[in-house]
Amino acid sequence: MIVIYGIKENLNPIKAKLSDVIHGCMQNVLGMPEDKRAHRFMPMDKADFYYPGGRTDAYTVIEINMMAGRKPETQKALIKAIFTNIEDQLGMAPVDVEIVIKEQAPYQWGFRGMTGDEVSDLKYTVNV
């Protein structure tokens, strides 16, 4: 699951394209299937979204929650792909994008009535 935060006036107009960019990176780097897009957009009032100096109102935070198992080099490749593709396709400077990957053990995920460590029919590999 991916949660994206930003100032609503800047985030709302680009939501669909940003979702496409992020999911394309998830597919290319992690091998995620097309139908595994789980994005949650959190457009915020400017008064509720504090961010570091040196950023513009385009500042966007991308929080990627995933089951543990991806190698550090795979995670780094994902982060770099997202930065590159957001800049290339949306024109957002990397300084205005923050990406954090949060890993949880498979038993800490619950979906389709079971935990992640019980599922045996994923259409993608977690340990990449």
TrEMBL record:
Pfam family, one: Tautomerase_2
InterPro entries: Tauto_MSAD (IPR037479), Tautomerase/MIF_sf (IPR014347)
Regions that span the bilayer: none
SUPFAM superfamilies named in the record: Tautomerase/MIF (SSF55331)
Protein's UniProt name: 4-oxalocrotonate tautomerase
